[in-house]
Design brief:
It is built from ten helices and five strands. It is an alpha/beta fold. Among the domains are: 62 residues, Arc Repressor Mutant, subunit A, CATH 1.10.10.1590; 84 residues, Glutaredoxin (3-Layer(aba) Sandwich), CATH 3.40.30. A hairpin with a 2-residue loop joins strand 3 and strand 4. Helix 4 crosses helix 5, helix 5 packs across helix 6 and helix 8 crosses helix 9. The longest helix has 14 residues. The chain is globular. The termini are far apart. Pfam families: 2Fe-2S_thioredx (PF01257). Belongs to the complex I 24 kDa subunit family. Its cofactor is [2Fe-2S] cluster.
Length: 246
């Protein structure tokens, strides 16, 4: 009986999806990100296993302070912060940085390679002295993120003979209320427009750039203009609690 039922109610086999121009477009990926152009490590003259790296005295102190935050049997939890310190000292996260982090934390180098190649904030090839990451994720994109990105690219193309700048698109920078946003050497510049992005790049070279909302119309992520809700007594004044060192 069960055999007869299976013959009566056999479902048709699924028709394989044929790759056409239309279907390829549906499943196509967005613009390639800078980090994924190189999926694996390729040795260069300055970035190979023989190019040793060591933390200088200033950063070694920070390394020791970081490791001290973790139990001795969980030192490997410090892989990410130590990679970040190495990148801050060298300018990028080389194989030498990864191997030194593995040596210090007493873990197999592969454990460090896995982390460095997974998280896109680790630059595995040299970048400019000033590295710009312009957010083009949805909230920033809707407010002109690509216009800001293209303005920055255009400026850098014409003003970068010394390799001072490098730029990439990044995913969400976590400051959606203040988009478009650009992260420049770990500092955030917010409420950007194409011209203000160019102005920031000029100021960064001159050493006068100030992070935060660039139009000075608000503090932190307060709304523009007058309040539209929550008209009761304020619990605190945002200007007195906002950190001045970021």
């Amino acid at each position: 009986m069960s055999v007869m039922l299976r013959r009566l109610y056999t479902l048709p086999r699924a028709t394989p999806l044929r790759t056409t121009t239309a279907s390829a477009a549906i499943f196509s990926t967005p613009i390639k990100r800078h980090h994924h152009i190189q999926g694996v490590h390729r040795d260069t003259a300055t970035n190979n296993a023989n190019a040793k790296f060591a933390f200088n005295a200033e950063y070694q102190t920070k390394v020791d302070e970081t490791i001290a935050k973790y139990p001795s049997n969980y030192k490997k939890a410090a892989i990410m912060p130590l990679l970040d310190l190495g990148q801050r000292q060298l300018g990028y996260c080389s194989i030498g940085v990864m191997n030194e982090v593995a040596r210090i934390l007493e873990v197999p180098p592969m454990r460090v390679y896995e982390v460095a190649s997974f998280y896109t904030m680790f630059q595995r090839q040299p970048v400019g002295k000033v590295h710009i990451g312009v957010c083009t994720n949805l909230p920033c994109m809707l407010r002109g993120g690509y216009d800001v990105y293209n303005a920055a690219k255009g400026f850098i193309k014409d003003n970068n003979d010394d390799g001072f700048y490098s730029i990439e698109e990044v995913e969400c920078s976590g400051a959606c209320a203040n988009g478009p946003v650009a992260e420049i050497n770990n500092l955030y510049y917010e409420d950007l427009e194409p011209q203000s992005m160019v102005n920031v790049l000029k100021e960064v070279r001159a050493g006068t750039a100030k992070p935060g909302p660039v139009d000075n119309k608000r503090v932190s992520c307060e709304p523009y203009g007058e309040k539209t809700s929550l008209f009761g007594k304020e619990a605190f004044d945002v200007k007195t609690v906002t950190r001045t060192d970021i």
